[in-house]
Amino acid sequence: MKLDFHVHTEYSPDSMVSLATFAKICKKKGLFPVITDHDTIKGALEFKKRFGNCIIGEEISTLQGDLIGLFLNEEIPKKISVYDAADRIKSQGGLVYMPHPFDKVRSSALKVYDFKADIVEVFNGRVVLQEYNRMAGDYADKHSLLKAVGSDSHFAMHIGSCYAEMDAFDDIKGFVRSLKNAKLIKRQSSPLVLPASKIVHISKQKLLWLKSFLK
From CA 74, how far away is CA 207, in angstroms rounded? Predict the structure, then answer.
């Protein structure tokens, strides 16, 4: 099975990928759905209700940078410490995933690393300077952490550009065993996707303002 571990849908402020579109792409590309929207699990819960099983994730905007929780049952609030966020993920039985941890181009990259992580994103499709991806791989090796890859897609065309090819699993323990032996497929996206997602974010904010103004 194939898993792209870092995907955003319309429930993120900087993506316009509908859940229906995401479902179609997963079916076409043979992806097991993983949804990691910014600071919400609402999209993942809705997807599970409408289209079937998925891994419910959340990219949490912590005070020390972005952190992803996988296999969540409850939403984790933003603007808490990364240590608190990691503890809350663990308390749900979830896995702590470090996205683009060394990407200095992004202000949202992690600033600290002294918390208990399970998985390191050793390749992020939107990282411009590949040295930062290599640093993530070195960190995972040094600390004996699981490795994963994510497209960090905010647009339909990039979903599944990076993925882990792994054996099927029935639970989190099986998932961990499978990921240890996964084959990681890595493809870099165009550097233009970063400013493009910012434009989407601004456009969606303006649309929300207009809707509230017209009420």
Answer: 28
**68-94 pLDDT, tens per residue?**
999 999 999 999 999 999 999 999 999
Could you report the per-residue pLDDT of 79-138, keeping only the tens digit for each? 999 999 999 999 999 999 999 999 999 999 999 999 999 999 999 999 999 999 999 999
Average pLDDT over every residue of 195-209: 50
- Count of the separate structural domains present in the chain: 1
State both tokens at 25: 């792409």
Q: Model-level pTM greater than 0.70?
A: yes
**CB-based contacts of 205, cutoff 8 Å, min separation 6:** 13
**Residue 108 neighbours by CB under 8 Å, 6+ apart:** 61, 65, 66
CATH of the domain at 105: 3.20.20.140
* Secondary structure of 22-49 as H, E, C letters: HHHHHHHHCECCEEEEECCCHHHHHHHH
How far, in Å, CA of 22 to CA of 166, rounded?
Answer: 20
Identify the domain containing residue 17 by its residue range.
2-214
Average pLDDT rounded to a whole number, residues 59-70:
98
